[in-house]
């Protein structure tokens, strides 16, 4: 039977959760995942994604992006020619190659899932 956990007491100063997660609070926002495109990345519908507005993204980052007028959350990828496209973590979804535009709105920095109904 599980009991109550105890605080970490190994001499490290872990600070607050807010300070740990929010390097730039003014550029950080929360969105709700609305779909199953990232299920294989353990991001489920209803999860909250802590997202940071940034111009610094790399291939492999999970991003909030506007692609050809639609907003999606996907992995940012680059092909052999250095062209960017978006990829789901669910085989039911095709990769998204921009036909007109791809604008990165933010980078997902954390996934938050609340258990139970309280």
> Looking at this structure, what is the CATH superfamily?
Umud Fragment, subunit A
CATH class: Mainly Beta
How would you sum up the global shape?
globular
Task: Tell me the CATH architecture.
Answer: Ribbon
Strand content: 25-35%
SS elements, strand count: 6
What topology, given as strand order, has the largest sheet?
Answer: 1-2-6-3-4-5
- Please outline the major beta sheet: 6 strands, antiparallel
Question: Low-confidence parts lasting 5 or more residues at pLDDT below 50?
Answer: none
| Mean of pLDDT | 89
Q: What is the SS-derived class?
A: mainly beta
Protein name: Peptidase S24/S26A/S26B/S26C domain-containing protein
Domain Peptidase S24/S26A/S26B/S26C: 17-109
InterPro entries: LexA-like, LexA/Signal_pep-like_sf, LexA_repressor, Peptidase_S24_S26A/B/C
Organism: Candidatus Kaiserbacteria bacterium RIFCSPHIGHO2_02_FULL_50_50
């Amino acid at each position: 039977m599980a009991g109550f956990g105890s605080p970490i007491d190994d001499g490290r100063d872990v600070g607050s959760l807010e300070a740990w997660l929010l390097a730039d609070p003014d550029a950080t926002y929360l969105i709700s995942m609305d779909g199953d495109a990232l299920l294989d990345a353990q991001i489920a519908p209803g999860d909250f994604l802590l997202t940071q507005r940034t111009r610094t993204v790399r291939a492999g980052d999970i991003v909030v992006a506007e692609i050809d007028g639609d907003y999606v959350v996907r992995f940012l990828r680059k092909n052999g020619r250095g062209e960017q496209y978006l990829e789901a973590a669910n085989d039911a979804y095709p990769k998204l190659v921009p036909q007109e535009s791809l604008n990165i709105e933010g980078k997902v920095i954390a996934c938050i899932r609340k258990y139970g109904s309280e």
